[in-house]
Amino acid sequence: MMKVALIGLGSVGKGVAGVIARKDLGITITGIADSKSGCVEPDGLDIANLLLNKSRNGYCGDREISAADVIKKADYDALVEVTPTNALTGEPAIGYIKTALIRKKHVVTSNKGPIALAYKELHALALKNGVALRYEATVAGAVPVMHTLEHGLAGNEILALYGVLNGTCNYILTRMADEGLTYEQALMEAREMGYAEADPTYDVQGIDAAIKLVILANTIWGNSIGLNDVDRTGIDLLTPDALRLAEDEGCTIRLIAEAIPRKHILRVSPRILEKNHPLVVDGTLNALTLETDMAKEITLIGRGAGSTETASAIIGDLLFIQDRYVQRT
Amino acid sequence: MKLEMKDSPGQLVAALKPMSEVGGNIIAVIHQREPDLDDDTLNVQIVLDLPEGRLERLVALLKEQGVHIQRIGEERLLYKRTVILIGHLMHTDLSDTVDQIDSTGFAEVCELAMSMPAVHERSTSRITIKAVSKHDMEAALAILRRVSIQKSLLLIEPLEEIA
Question: Does pTM surpass 0.90?
């Protein structure tokens, strides 16, 4: 049995806990914490009961036990860090991850903040301690981008990448194109569907897509770039006429994140694409085209968000760690 | 395009083959022997449809076959790109925006579609630019990028073909 400490019980955390409880994956949760409480049980926690408590009174455990306590003291092989992204400081997640790595615990996270802001340091810390730091869920949700890069495309040189990495923007653009909605109408609809936050700035101005581009670029090319290195234009100033004028030519508009090192391009911007282009996906779907020297172009398409979908990426990382490290010891 | 080649067996076929190799569609082949020309050369005029960006490759292939290209029709050399501009296009002098491209001599705006919903609202236009080469097209787009920033316009570019 691989022992896991789970930090964060929002949509993603609940998804991960639910899947571990439901499926026989050889994973047990020995520590858990939300923003207000925590609990520890070396023999494995009763997840179903714990989730029930959380839904009844808002706490998963003891209010005297904090997330930091669980990370420092619980007995686990891997930390699953799924607290909300803080794009400015990456905290408290960076601190959580460092503590676990120093304890020689593997870390799996869906949190974009730490990976975008402190990848180099965290990656070095993991290497030094002989443990894994995995973050498949940070980019394109359920789509196995990192596994594809690391294994399927091993030995390939990645020449460029182009992606639709923000489901909220893609939903808004799809609705503007299909129904002739204004940006404001489509945004309101996205909110009603639960696809957009009350403050949509982070999504519609391309910040979220840019953070994912930073994570991909640092992973592939190890060039320590930051959010400020990305040339960024959002979709909030698009008019319905723009989509109609594109449509007249058999095209549409999508928010594309692109990185082409040989041309020094690192950019998130709305772009005109032919409607049959592989990156023109509908609704909240994500897509990523990798251009490589041997495989040429590979396009991955799938769900970029959702509780169980994101859990899929985290479970994939955990089982990889189990195969690679835990079973051998 | 007008071609000049050796008048020996198999030469015409050898010249036509690269055209299908690059995905071209031959519309007409005009083959006339001119009496005042030396016996060993043949002049052929070919009209063909070629996917964008393939012409340079075709020219290289024909040269390999020892075919001399006398002339390439102007139209066929043009690169086309369509962009969308959003903003206060009239207040920021759209004709000046267009002129900045036209005055280069190597690129021009060949089509413009426009939508103006209300006097004070932002308008949207679709602009098609033609340029003589890929390099010139890049230069034209760079000008448009600079003008867009100066005039606070939102420029939406096409996603370049994956190279």
Answer: no
